[in-house]
Amino acid sequence: MHPYRTHNCAELRASHEGKTVRLSGWVHRKRDHGNLLFIDLRDHFGVTQCVLSVDDADFNVAEGARYESVLTVTGKVVKRSAETINNAMVTGEIELAADSVKVESTAEMLPIQVNSDKEFPEETRLRYRFLDLRREKMHKNIVLRSQIISSMRQRMMDQGFLEMQTPILTASSPEGARDFLVPSRLHPGKFYALPQAPQMFKQLLMMGGFDKYFQIAPCFRDEDARADRSPGEFYQLDFEMAYVTQEDVFDALEPVLRGLFEEFANGRSVTSGPFPRIPYAEAMLKYGSDKPDLRNPLLIQDVCEVFDGSDFSIFAKAIKKGSVVRAIQAKGAASQPRSFFDKMNKWAQNEGAPGLGYITFAEGGEAKGPIAKFLDDARIAQLQKITGMGEGDAVFFVCDTEAGAAKLAGAARTKIAEALDLIEKNCFKFCWVVDFPMFEFDEERQCLDFSHNPFSMPQGGLEALNTMDPLKILAYQYDIVCNGTELSSGAIRNHLTDVMYKAFSIAGYSQEDVENEFSGMINALKYGAPPHGGSAPGVDRIVMLLADEPNLREVVAFPMNQKAEDLMMSAPNQVSTEQLEELHIRVKLPPEDIKKTAIN
């Protein structure tokens, strides 16, 4: 017999009755009924109930075993009586009558209760992550993650993609987020960078003659934590294709995502057919976001024409100065008490806005509310026609710059729909956001900059760059969004050097700057580069959606905390003087850190 187990703790059934078996696992629960001791033994696969009589030789051994101690139990499979069958357990028809119990490892007093759904402080959970991972929900999430990645990989290979690996130690890039830097021992004063994404390498693979590449790629960005982003490393389904248009990329990725979500949706619906394509400008207008949540049926409309020249002077004057007025639908809200509208107004003020004006349409379509009296019947009718709101509905208003109005109206759209319980449940709604602007104006630096990916192909190519207002040039750039969460950015790449130089010159880079900072890419483009494009859906975010978890740390085995610390492994940490000298590095601490170091 195997020294640890003949079966796992989810395997035994009534058909095994009378067999002598051996199980190993953790003490999940214990119940002492006087003459009988029941132990629920748990391993990766499940739980089996073991029972010992007070007369059994190892009764005292089992009785003294603490929760989460590791036991090996040998005994006979016994079929439970009809009244003691536990249908909540897959092994609930049987129990193991223990002949011997061996303690493989004794657990100390637990800082986290593993056999409970009780919540514990995040710091405790991350410090004792190995215990946290034993808890049922966390364990299921990590298993789900593995299954999703396995399915993802197979679906890509089924389409003819080759799985390839790209370097982890590479050069620092001036674009994107902050790099994690790695000092070079062999080249004093020089540094590698951990890749923020395999962007350049995957493009170089296309230039190297490969047709379809993918990998489950680790990416590293030194940025602050968010609920949907780790403050250090994350994984993405990175892929690239040669000789493709934007639609070809969509046709490759949509079946992977749709099939993946259908496989793990657990009864929830998934967008069928081609995912909707929403131009960036339309997304910002109708949804107030470039990550539209299509579960929310409410839309935003431009209603400047309703208020331009109206008696509502606050909006009318603001329009003359360049502001816009946006109306947010509030379907069925007219029946809400006055307190609902007051709460919405207070919420807007907490967001930094003067407030949130509104009009309700009572029985017969009569317009009411603080703004209604300033609009004549013709303007009210125009408002109803534009917004589609009528009897029983309401409309909220935002007046600000175009960017400011989009931000507040988008947040208000979500807030209103949540308050009215209008967001569709148990579904995954996908869309593509397309036609992103190639450039944007950086208010802080007072100059033009790339709005998305600098290596994207501008729509219209070199002619557009030479003749059009840069802020009106669109790019072959696209995001895929699910339930208001951006899963991926992608683009058709710029494979022409003259277009590359011109695009970067508009953003303030000289030809010399481009050749110095992107030498590998530019050099490869000079030797015949195929048209190519790709995308990179975030693995962590996909798992987070399918696991129905609000925080990414619930679907990553060993995440960092909000301060980018690994509490379990005490990272980051100080290193020895010898290590620093070997790397030719001297540490210069900020004043406050010098004080802390001295105290410690």
Structure description:
There is one protein chain. By secondary structure, this protein is α+β, with helices and mostly antiparallel strands. The chain is 30% helix and 23% strand. The chain contains 19 helices and 24 strands. The strands form 6 sheets. It has an 8-stranded mixed sheet with strand order 6-9-10-24-23-22-19-12, with helices on both faces. The relative contact order is 0.10. The model has no long low-confidence stretch (mean pLDDT 94).
List the main descriptive attributes of the protein structure presented here.
600 residues, alpha+beta, eight-stranded mixed β-sheet, 30% helix, globular
Summary of the model, kept short:
With 600 residues, this protein is α+β, with helices and mostly antiparallel strands. It is built from 19 helices and 24 strands. Strand 20 and strand 21 (447-450) form a beta hairpin.
How is this fold's topology laid out?
Layout: E1 20-32, E2 36-42, E3 47-53, H1 59-64, E4 70-79, E5 94-105, H2 122-127, H3 129-132, H4 136-158, E6 162-163, E7 181-183, E8 191-193, H5 199-207, E9 212-220, E10 233-242, H6 246-264, E11 269-270, E12 277-279, H7 280-286, E13 300-302, H8 304-307, H9 313-320, E14 324-330, H10 338-350, E15 357-361, E16 367-368, H11 377-387, E17 394-400, H12 402-419, E18 427-428, E19 430-434, E20 439-442, E21 447-450, H13 461-467, E22 477-482, E23 485-492, H14 497-506, H15 511-517, H16 519-525, E24 532-535, H17 539-546, H18 577-582, H19 591-599
Parallel strand pairs: 3-5, 6-9, 11-18, 12-19
Antiparallel strand pairs: 1-2, 1-4, 2-3, 4-5, 7-8, 9-10, 10-24, 13-14, 14-17, 15-16, 15-17, 19-22, 20-21, 22-23, 23-24
